[in-house]
Design goal:
The structure is a homodimer. With about 210 residues, chain A is α/β, with parallel strands linked by helices. Chain A has 7 helices and 6 strands. The interface between A and B is large, with 62 and 62 residues.
Chain lengths: ~210, ~210
């Protein structure tokens, strides 16, 4: 939809800003803006301020680089968590996903990306040095690599594995196998092949 | 996706605000917020301010109730437009759609809704009185009713038609018929029936 010059510049500006977001086109942007216009002024004030404050006031944890409102995030400063295990993830979104499984009680390390020569991202662009620093500092027994099972993820896993080798720490990766609820018939061969190679004793599958 | 209490309240607040928008769920909201977090601070400042300013500074034209940055909108104050014709629409979005056709050079009147007893919207809740006032003021030759062809639209059309009857102004509605590009085979019977009843002389279809 084109916008004629008559349209309010304020409206046009708001539509343009919405349309910059990923997955939001101009039609959706206009729909959202018209929705906000119909609401009380307090609604758009709250929305606008939440966005401005988010970016202005947000911190990243100095230890694990997770998002935080303070210098050290609540996860790193929680004494009830297992501080001998670090789970390495690509982004803060994966921290939330793993926390939601309620299966992990250790700490995290957010890389802020993965090694991807195609995108010009090398080891020094992500938080690998600080991970090595944490392990070198002692007290860590296991590092769990929880990156996506892609070529970039595997490259990053291998790089970290080599970097951590001198410290004698246990390095593990997420199990790869058939997804729960999947039909075996439609599972890809590589995944199925790995799940046969890494088959588990049946009684172990009852461990929580 | 649940949010554990550890997540940054700033993040949670921004996600909640996004998720209030129509058609945006919590997963999409989180994706948009994480996108904004990755941008420069200036990006989220511009976005937030555009939204706050929009609602705070926007005006509605005193004459036609279209959105405007001034008291009288650029359409109403444009001397090149035909000020003897008023096109009645439900919302400002329809003004944009009709302007984009470039087939109309008259003025508008934005009702801000249509009569809908189911939603508790009566004639006094929308800008019908001010439309009657404009017609009563004289100088108007034709009022074009451009509401959606729904039951509520037809009810509103009929109500306005009756209200304008004393002023001897020509009242017309948008032609209803088969859409250009539609397959006749799949056109609904009511539309097809109307388009037969209101068939046009073939040479008239070349006008304008």
């Amino acid at each position: 939809m084109d916008f004629q010059p008559f349209a309010s510049p304020l409206l046009e500006n708001a539509v343009n800003e919405f349309a910059k977001l990923p997955g939001i086109g101009r039609k959706t942007a206009l729909r959202l803006v018209l929705h906000l216009l119909r609401q009380e002024e307090s609604v758009s004030e709250a929305f606008g301020n939440a966005i401005i404050r988010l970016r202005r006031e947000v911190h990243y944890c100095k230890v694990c680089h997770n998002i935080s409102d303070s210098e050290i995030c609540p996860l790193c400063s929680d004494p009830s968590r297992d501080d001998t295990t670090i789970c390495v993830v690509e982004n803060i979104k994966e921290v939330m996903v793993i926390e939601n499984t309620r299966q992990y009680r250790g700490l995290y390390h957010v890389l802020g990306g993965i090694i991807s020569p195609m995108d010009g991202i090398g080891p020094s662009d992500i938080e690998i040095e600080s991970l090595v620093g944490r392990v070198a500092g002692g007290g860590i027994k296991e590092v769990i690599l929880a990156l996506s099972p892609t070529m970039e993820g595997d490259t990053t896993n291998f790089y970290i594995f080599r970097k951590l080798a001198p410290y004698g720490v246990k390095v593990s990766i997420l199990a790869r196998g058939v997804s729960i609820g999947d039909e075996l018939e439609y599972t890809d061969e590589v995944t199925l092949g790995r799940s046969i190679l890494n088959r588990l004793p049946f009684d172990e599958t009852f461990r929580s």
